[in-house]
Amino acid sequence: MSAGIDTTTFEAIVRQAQRAPTAHNTQPALFRLNNPREIAILGDARRALSVSDPSRRDYLMGLGAVAEGVRLALAERAIAARIESMSNTGDAPVSGDHRCVARVLIDGACEPDPLGSQVAHRRSYRGSFAKLSAERANAARQRLDDIPGAVLVTDQLTIAALTNHYEAANLSSLRDPAFVGELWHWLRLNPHHANYDRDGLNADCMAMSGIERRLAGLVMRPAVLPRLLR
Q1: CB 169 within 8 A of CB 161
Q2: 199 and 27 in contact (C-beta within 8 Å)?
Q3: Is 221 helix (H, G, I), strand (E, B) or coil?
Q4: 16: Cβ contacts below 8 Å, ≥ 6 apart
Q5: Count of CB atoms within 10 A of residue 22's CB?
Q6: CA 4, CA 17: separation in Å to the nearest integer?
Q7: Number of helical (H) and strand (E) elements in the chain, helices listed first
Q8: Fewer CB atoms inside 10 Å of the end CB: C or N, the chain?
Q9: Those residues with Cβ within 8 angstroms of residue 161's Cβ, 6 or more apart along the chain or in another chain
Q10: Residues 199-208: pLDDT tens digits?
């Protein structure tokens, strides 16, 4: 059974877990090493998105992704762990805007999880995807059969219809000055921004070219974009 982790390992695990996907990359999680075998994950409610996520669904999903990121980082080091949601224990202490949402409990040893090493390679991709071959479509369909609610869409007309629905919903949001204002708050288009490498949607992570950064800096402003899309 693992004896637990020290502060150095804890800090390395936090750095990995912070790569978990969260809405607008708000980095809503704080981490606390309660003891060598327990990591607490606290949500920072000040980083919830009040306009685009009023129910805090995305906020909580992001915190769940962070908890899974901690588990993956431990598993990459051959340390087994389980996630305990504080909502299930009835013990969710509140301190100001910080609420403990989960604990990751070290639970012995395990085989290293190969998925953990892939976390560092997660990034935006803005190019075209290769056409899905029939062989790969069948393989994907077989894997998805065991996942409730999962559907593989290959029909081009259906894909086009879904695309149209998505674009209409996206356009509706971008016409809302409050939505764009919130988005603008989290955009990091200039590498000299104080929080460029800390949180938010920075231009490098979004794989934006120099021209795209400059154009976005002009048209994404709350006073500009909604008017352009009227």
Answers
A1: no
A2: yes
A3: coil
A4: 69, 70, 72, 73, 76, 116, 119, 120
A5: 22
A6: 17
A7: 7, 7
A8: C
A9: none
A10: 999 999 898 9
**Residues constituting the chain:** 230
Which residue pairs from 125-132 have beta carbons closer than 8 angstroms and sit at least 24 positions apart in sequence? Answer: 125/207, 126/206, 126/207
Over residues 165-191, the pLDDT tens digits come to 999 999 999 999 999 999 999 999 999
pTM to 2 decimals? Answer: 0.85
Residue 78: which region, alpha, beta or left (left: phi > 0; alpha: psi -120 to 50)? left
Interacting residues of 54 by C-beta distance below 8 A, sequence separation 6+: none
Query: pLDDT over 90 for what percent of the chain?
Result: 70
- The strand ranges marked E within 20-165 are 29-35, 38-44, 79-85, 94-95, 98-109
End-to-end Cα spacing for the chain: 61
Q: What is the DSSP string of 99-118?
A: EEEEEEEEEEE----TTGGG
Dihedral pair phi/psi, residue 52, rounded to 5°: -85, -15
